[in-house]
Specification:
Layout (H helix, E strand, L loop, with lengths): L9 H25 L3 H31 L11 H32 L3 E4 L2 E3 L7 H36 L3 H5 L19
Antiparallel strand pairs: 1-2
Helix pairs in contact: 1-2, 2-3, 3-4
């Protein structure tokens, strides 16, 4: 197995590890919103809207960083279909992370609700007020969230596969604290001679 020699750019790593807990929190807040009381729902919604906007803005920054600083190459011995799946799943994650806040904003606009982000910031509506459009967008937002959750779980599984099974340095390229003197994730340092 070959080991990637270069880690992700520091800005890419910073944005990744900043966004990861926000996305996880957002997914669980969304699930909580589906199964909670009205008083808790209002609190979760008050967190959900600005958090979604923050994730959307961070994602745009992350895409710029990725275009300016491409990720390190995957190991040469990784099958071509897995390399294609890795690249495709990253862009799918980016697309979903962008579509989620946009569909939420559009859904609230169609319902006639303002999107308030706190500190007096209110986003303008991006859709006309329309009950049918609201219902469609609400369903789309729900299904996009489920797809995002599944894609996130696949991303996590792939990271663990690279870090625990293949030990090929892919996980360490995003998590440099996993790098060992021996060069591979999970391997102990080579003994001193």
């Amino acid at each position: 197995m070959s080991t990637p020699t270069t880690p992700f750019h520091p800005k890419a790593r910073l944005l990744h590890w900043l966004m990861a807990p926000l996305v996880i929190a957002m997914l669980f807040i969304g699930i909580g919103m589906l199964s909670t009381t009205s008083s808790a729902y209002a609190l979760l919604l008050a967190i959900h809207k600005p958090l979604g906007a923050a994730i959307g803005m961070l994602l745009l920054l992350r895409i710029v960083v990725r275009l300016r600083h491409p990720p390190p190459p995957l190991p040469a011995d990784l099958p071509a279909w897995q390399q294609r799946a890795a690249h495709g799943s990253h862009w799918l994650l980016y697309a979903l992370l962008l579509l989620m806040p946009l569909s939420g904003w559009a859904m609230l606009s169609a319902a006639g609700y303002p999107v308030t982000l706190g500190a007096g910031i209110v986003l303008p509506p991006i859709m006309p007020r329309d009950a049918g459009l609201f219902a469609w967008l609400r369903g789309a937002h729900h299904w996009l969230a489920l797809l995002l959750f599944a894609t996130f779980l696949l991303h996590l599984a792939a990271a663990l596969f690279h870090g625990l099974i293949r030990r090929d340095g892919v996980l360490a390229s995003m998590a440099p604290w996993l790098r060992r003197r021996g060069g591979r994730e999970g391997n102990p340092p080579a003994p001193a001679q």
